[in-house]
Amino acid sequence: MSSIIEKKYYEEITNMLGKQVRIETESGSVVGVLLGLDPYLNAVVARKSGENLTKVIIPGRIIKMLMLEEEVFDLKALADRLNKVFPGMVKLREDIEAIIVMDKIKVTKSGVVEGAGPSAEKVKQIYESYVQELQRKQ
């Protein structure tokens, strides 16, 4: 059981790489793109300061909190919505962060990346409607 929990933990951290984060430390906070993180939570962050891009290494021992600043795209909610239109033909593949519809249409948080035809167009419409709702909530 412990190895399953540990694996899930590292998957979540890996999903944060390359994304905007806020790191609260004992002396303040740093906002930037998370470039790397080791098992001791030593973090490498790229942040923009004016025209310059700097990389900062933050020792894990002073980190109080690491928080994703970007809105989390809920693939499960989108899969549920797609399943209402394509019942029993929607598979959520969390391992590849994608939804497969009718075994031929692939949807990611970026949109429909594989598939063509009327069914793919319908999936695209549902995706765009879902994204618009997320944007209105923000």
What does this structure look like?
This protein has 138 residues and is an alpha+beta fold. The chain folds into 2 domains: 2-68, SH3 type barrels, CATH 2.30.30.100; 75-137, 2-Layer Sandwich (TATA-Binding Protein). It is 33% helix and 38% strand. It has 3 helices and 9 strands. The strands form 2 sheets. A 5-stranded antiparallel β-sheet has the order 4-3-2-1-5, with no helix packed on it. It has a 4-stranded antiparallel β-sheet with strand order 6-7-8-9, with helices on one face. The protein starts with a helix and ends with a helix. The mean pLDDT is 90.
What structural class results from the helix and strand content?
A: alpha+beta
Number of spatially distinct domains = 2
Uncertain ranges: none
Alpha carbon gap, first and last residue: 37 Å
Helix content: 25-40%
Percent of residues in β-strands = 35-45%
CATH architecture of the largest domain: Roll
Secondary structure: number of strands:
9
What's the CATH class of the largest domain, please? Mainly Beta
> How do the SSEs run, as a string of H and E?
HEEEEEHEEEEH
Instruction: Please tally the helical runs, counting DSSP H or I stretches of 4 or more residues.
Output: 3
Rg (C-alpha, Å): 19 Å
